[in-house]
Design goal:
Strand order of the largest sheet: 9-18-17-16-12-15
Shape: globular
CATH class of the largest domain: Alpha Beta
Number of strands: 18
Helix content: 10-25%
Radius of gyration: 26 Å
Largest sheet: 6 strands, mixed
Strand content: 25-35%
Structural class: alpha+beta
CATH architecture of the largest domain: 2-Layer Sandwich
Distance between the termini: 60 Å
CATH topology of the largest domain: Chloramphenicol Acetyltransferase
CATH superfamily of the largest domain: Chloramphenicol acetyltransferase-like domain
Number of helices: 8
């Protein structure tokens, strides 16, 4: 039976993917689980594997094209088998996923580009149709740039030129898949989720000295983010009411602390997740976070490595940012934004001295978390960071 190879939907945020290159040619024999092509999702680059064994009978999308999740990419079948039903959506599509990051030269022959039949009604989005009618534009004169040649709003605006469309002249840069995913996620969060924010200043003198002790012993020393992950996990263990999600008619309290760490990329950001942080030592967190962050920068993370966080941390201190607020990404109900460590004048016991301070801001979903709950969590986080020896106490110690 013919097997359809489709662009998978690997995460909730993935709406489209880029077929970077084919690793097989039409006519090649493939085995189930073998890599057919390399694809780029909104967060990573990975292999697309064959769901069934057979011959790669037909390739429908050329390397470099962006297509919607669920789009038919190719058909695998036996040599003499009729693949017409598979090409006409009469065969149920089987999900394909990939895990092994590799590279290979593009070998697939490009398929024919879609051509609009003369006299055929142009395909356009509802917004494009309304805008065209409003401005008296004949859709048949427009070449669509959307999927399958679909006319979209930007095509109408471009057709009028910068002066007519009200747009200043400039250079348009298409959104990357990652930037599109960020746009969707933040819009879905910021508007419907009632955010509130709590800011606290933490004395980081002892934490900096704690890190210096590792350096003096010529041991791998924890980054500030490593300390924040461990301290947050300890504070969440004491205040599990922060490690929650609002799910409409219930508030789910998670039994495990999975902390996501925002990592900046050239075209956006990704949040690799350190699992079960409450049960990990600082040393284990250091090793795991370094490995995940390195692979995140190479776009080699798998979906299960950057989804499902119950709490997240975004640290912009290394960019000399004093403070900022983080947008919550559901279903998380809390996220910590971290600024730079500053040398500032500190007044204590009637005298002024130089101290090292860091501001942190907790974003909270008010449907699940109240102000006092968030404040108590921050107070505990501050206490731990100002007594950093607790970070290396045995896991589970009081």
């Amino acid at each position: 039976m013919a097997s359809r190879v489709v662009m998978p939907k690997l995460t909730d945020t993935m709406e489209e993917g880029i077929l970077l290159e084919w690793k097989k040619r039409e006519g090649d024999h493939v085995q189930a689980g073998e890599a057919l092509a390399e694809i780029e999702t909104d967060k990573a680059v990975m292999d697309l594997e064959a769901f069934a064994s057979g011959i790669l009978r037909k390739i429908l999308v050329r390397g470099g094209e962006t297509v919607q999740s669920g789009t038919l990419l190719a058909v695998i079948a036996e040599a003499e088998e009729d693949i017409t039903p598979a090409l006409t959506d009469q065969v149920t599509a089987a999900p394909s996923t990939g895990t092994k990051p590799t590279a290979a030269a593009s070998t697939a022959p490009p398929p024919a580009s879609p051509v609009r039949t003369e006299g055929a009604r142009p395909i356009a989005s509802p917004r494009a149709k309304a805008l065209a009618a409003e401005r008296g534009i004949d859709l048949s004169t427009i070449d669509g740039t959307g999927p399958g040649g679909r006319i979209v709003e930007v095509d109408i605006l471009k057709a009028q030129g910068p002066a007519m469309s009200g747009l200043p002249a400039g250079t348009d840069q298409p959104l990357t898949l990652m930037r599109k995913a960020i746009a969707r996620a933040t819009v879905q969060s910021k508007a419907p989720v009632p955010h509130f924010y709590l800011t606290r200043e933490i004395d980081m003198e002892a934490a900096q000295q704690f890190r210096e002790q590792f350096k003096q012993r010529r041991q791998p020393h924890p980054s500030i983010t490593d300390l924040l992950i461990k301290a947050s996990a300890m504070a969440l263990t004491k205040h599990p009411e922060i490690n929650v999600s609002y799910l409409g008619d219930v508030i789910r309290t998670y039994g495990r602390i999975d902390i996501g760490v925002a990592v900046g990329m050239e075209d956006g950001l990704i949040t690799p997740v350190i699992r079960d942080c409450g049960a990990k030592t600082l040393e284990a967190i250091m090793a795991e976070s370094r490995a995940l962050i390195e692979r995140a920068k190479q776009k080699r993370l798998q979906p299960q490595e950057y989804t499902g966080a119950t709490f997240s941390i975004s640290n912009l201190g290394m960019f000399d940012v004093d403070n900022f607020i983080a947008v919550l990404i559901p279903p998380q109900a809390a996220s910590l934004a971290v600024g730079a460590i500053r040398e500032v004048p500190v007044v204590a016991a009637g005298s002024v001295r130089v101290g090292r301070r860091m501001q942190v801001t907790l974003s909270c979903d008010h449907r699940a978390i109240d102000g006092v709950m968030g404040a108590e969590f921050l107070k505990e986080l501050q206490r731990i960071l100002e007594h950093p020896q607790e970070l290396v106490a045995p896991v589970g110690a009081p």
